């Protein structure tokens, strides 16, 4: 039952307490009445005794019914105010009976008088302990009982002895009323605290519900944001992928200088867009908790060489010397996360440092290993070295020459979040005008000399020497096929391009060493299914690279389980070439070893 005010709650709980305790008191009235009738049977008229006992027993039974019924109603959280009033009425009527006994039915035998006084005193003490929550009723009942008994004592004992006995009885009543008030106050305070606790619990429940609703709204908003980013990313990646491949396939040199300049700017813009999409993908995966950590022994040299192959064209466009320092270090790390960290650091150096040299290498500090990216560019002011790891923060150097390089300021923020997710740190040391050094670590070294075939899902190691092979391109986008075939021809590979492949086409084409297929082909066909069918037809040695604009974690997991390489659109030429060289280097020896000699 709900209560509007604290007073209503206290009154309700007081009624409930009195009714609950009264279930164990009503028997006292009946037993006491029976004992009185027995001891006084020879002293007073049986009629008077029977009437008095009937009075006491009847109202005691009525009080029992009221107490049990009222308690049942309180347990069901129903109103019980009327039951409390009825109980008070029966208590007053029973007090009249006890008062009449103390005044009218007093035998001349002193022992019997003491016995009756003991019964009345016991009832008063019991009532004070059980009925104090109804203090007004307690006062009325004591006034009906004790003064009558005291008056009888004064009448029967004239003089000083009677006055002293009567005064002692009145003093006893005062003590009982004082004790009752103390218990009444204590009980009310307890109920008041219970009310405050209940209100506080209600407030906490309301606040918890508000927090749940706010959290749900935030999660829905975050999901909507991620869904929007994923959908927008998917819709934009597809055309940019084709444009990027077509632009990358254009000849590097042209007699027209302005044409060369325009082409260089277009390539830089497309490269910046590709990095932007990679940043949005990283942010989405981090925000939605889809970046999984899988640590394993990894050789750093292939991972760094793969990054070099990816960023070498962009560095060449900017006339920057990008170097990788050879290393034999093996560390226990999630190769995919470390690869993304390295890529972001190199991209940041290319885009913002204005350096002419960038060096990537490994440094040992005692038993610890740190991966470092150095540049000899403009440097970073001391007061901005912490800010650059925040979202959308970019370095501002007063009086520095303006640049056309743009960015969202997410690259280093993503680096910091990826590193924190892996349990490592990213730090920076810099001097204005002399350059900067970004260090990632400490990385746990391992003596395991095994090198992972693919340091990440998206990028693999560069082989010792260039490898060429026969490559199939399966893509229903004509622009993507055209751009990719031009690049393959430029890189010295033979190829066969087609919008779709079916098993009945097996006799029409030469067996592939590598298949590059789009994830989502026309008519609902899946690149994964097509790759599986090609491997069943030509053998498991056929390497597969899947290209997609779909950033869903289920897609990444499916490709990982199938053992293929995954590239997200728009694919940069260096990224594509590194993946092709790695797959051909790892698969062609396997194919040769399985062919009959």
Structure description:
- This protein is α/β, with parallel strands linked by helices.
- The longest helix has 89 residues.
- β6 and β7 form a beta hairpin.
- The protein folds into 3 domains: 201 residues; 146 residues, Heat Shock Protein 90; 125 residues, Response regulator (Rossmann fold, 3-Layer(aba) Sandwich), CATH 3.40.50.
- Strands 1, 2, 3, 4, 5, 6 and 7 form a 7-stranded mixed sheet that branches.
- The C terminus is likely disordered.
Span between N and C termini?
91 Å
Taking all Cα atoms into account, the compactness measure Rg is 46 Å
Q: Pairing-aware structural class of the strands and helices?
A: alpha/beta
Count the helices. How many?
15
SSE succession:
HHHHHHHHEHEEHEEHEEEHEEHEHEH
The tally of structural domains comes to 3
* Overall pLDDT confidence: 81
Largest β-sheet summary: 7 strands, mixed
Low-confidence stretches: 397-408, 449-466, 589-597
Total number of beta strands: 12
Proportion of helical residues: 55-70%
Oligomer: single chain
β-strand percent reads 5-15%
Global morphology: rod-shaped
